[in-house]
Design a protein that fits this description.
416 residues, alpha+beta, Phosphorylase Kinase, domain 1, Aminoglycoside 3'-phosphotransferase, Chain: A, domain 2, 13 helices, 13% strand, binds adenosine-5'-diphosphate, binds 2-acetamido-2-deoxy-1-O-phosphono-alpha-D-glucopyranose, binds magnesium ion
């Protein structure tokens, strides 16, 4: 549904904003919700139309976010703040859909493509810290916003059904890609089986740890806030490790049309592993550690299979900009899985090294991220435009923690 600028402003003004709406512009690169930046004079906000096909239980979704953000805030973390409607509700529903507003977390950037290894290490530390922070959160309070979200065998079954039905007649255009996933059916149940038989623990996890779901401080390069909390649910630590590798350790964007530019970088994998393991060293089990490389591959496999399923179903789930978009995304994910398969031994070596380090790892340093799109492109190869997105860096650092710490990992990594 297209929403006019006037109606966006009118939706925004239903919320208890501090100021008058001056402009509302599209913002960020999420695939699920429609996100806008609202300028209300000296304050800015993020307005989202919630994707109610993906999240039909908006009440449960917003309740989860309220509980999780309150829990994180109480631990001193910088996190999303829900701006209530003028009636005090968490969201507003009208003819144009269900809407919510967050404070814009100022002075931050988020990346589609990692600009350097230091940023990825910082992201690993932040996502690892997030696991620690939620360790004490009672999972039974949470609504399962998307049932079977990382149930890879279930994803595989849905993929197979989509191939069989072939509702759009697209299967013939992607036989090679379909066969790729069919050949890997045996990988799908490894993590769900391990969870079921108690081989690895069920935790409260983020479940969507792609790189642009973390906001980094534009000036210091430190992590500020983990966002996109829509899928915080019970899950495996391997999901949060793996899904970030999928986007973070690739040298190309998720939708790079030229797969020759897609490389799985072992250096980036090492950087993320150092950050993440550094944070969860005290709680990660031996079996989880052993499965970390596989978890990265499985999340990449699962995501590509989801893109292909959506392509076969007519692009009904992920936002797409052109008809082949989901197929292009599938191909980058396949290329990454291929390379991870080839480098499995090296990935295991990295995890063994990092696990053995006892935290004594040299610091690569975290260069400032502000205006770093050129450097971003230099590390990543070709793309300057689109590499750094979602910059909320125009205003001051209005939401920095008051204790003088600079990032969420720093502020509360030890507080779990
Ligand atoms: P989706 O579920 O569609 O991925 P997200 O909640 O991840 O939507 O938001 C999309 C993008 O908008 C993020 O990647 C980030 O760049 C930006 N964003 C979201 N919330 C905020 C916020 N509170 N402050 C600043 N930027 C934000
Ligand atoms: C979606 O919402 P966003 O864009 O951060 C998706 C993830 C996928 C990702 C692929 C709720 O993430 O599961 O891994 O796209 N989120 C949901 O880029 O399905
Ligand atoms: Mg997102």
């Amino acid at each position: 549904m297209t929403v006019t600028a006037a109606s966006l402003a009118s939706v925004a003004s239903r919320f208890a904003l501090d100021g008058v709406v001056e402009s509302v512009e599209p913002h960020g690169d999420g695939h699920i919700n429609a996100t806008y930046l609202v300028n209300a004079g000296y304050r800015r906000y993020v307005l989202q139309r919630i994707n109610t096909t993906v999240f039909p239980d908006v009440e449960g979704l917003m309740r989860n976010i309220r509980l999780v953000t309150a829990f994180l805030r109480a631990k001193g973390c910088e996190t999303l703040r829900i701006v209530p409607t003028r009636d005090g509700a968490d969201y507003w529903r009208g003819e144009s859909g269900a809407w919510r507003v967050y404070d814009c977390i100022e002075g931050t950037v988020s990346y589609n493509l990692v600009p350097n290894a230091g940023i990825l290490r910082e992201a690993g530390a932040a996502f690892g810290a997030f696991q620690n922070q939620l360790a004490g959160f009672k999972a039974s309070q949470l609504t399962e916003t998307i049932p079977h979200f990382h149930d890879t065998p279930d994803r595989f079954a849905r993929f197979r059904a989509a191939v069989d039905v072939d509702v759009c007649g697209r299967a013939d255009s992607c036989r090679g890609e379909i066969d790729f996933y069919m050949d890997r059916a045996g990988d799908c149940p490894v993590v769900t089986d391990a969870l079921r038989n108690g081989g690895i623990p069920l935790r409260v996890t983020h479940n969507d740890t792609k790189l642009n779901n973390i906001l980094m401080d534009a000036a210091t390069g430190k992590s500020r806030a983990i966002i996109d909390l829509d899928t915080v649910m019970p899950g495996s630590l391997l999901y949060d490790f793996g899904d970030a590798i999928r986007t973070g350790a690739s040298t190309a964007l998720e939708d790079e049309p030229d797969v020759r530019k897609v490389h799985f970088s072992l250096d980036l994998f090492r950087a993320y592993t150092r950050g993440f393991v550094g944070a969860v060293r005290g709680s990660v089990t031996a079996r989880e550690a052993e499965l970390l490389p596989f978890g990265a591959r499985l999340m990449t496999l699962e995501c590509g299979m989801r893109f292909l399923t959506d392509y076969l179903c007519g692009d009904v789930y992920f936002a797409t900009a052109y008809p082949e978009h989901n197929l292009v995304r599938t191909r980058t994910q396949i290329e990454l899985v291929r390379q991870m398969e080839e480098r499995d031994a090296a990935m295991r070596g990295v995890v063994d090294d990092v696990m053995g380090d006892g935290g004594e790892v040299p610091d690569e340093g975290v260069p400032p991220a502000n205006g770093d799109a050129a450097g971003n492109a230099a590390v990543a190869g070709e793309r300057a435009a689109g590499a750094m997105i979602g910059a909320c860096a125009a205003g001051g650092n209005g939401t920095m923690p008051e204790d003088g710490t600079t990032g969420c990992a720093a502020a509360c990594g030890d507080a779990a």
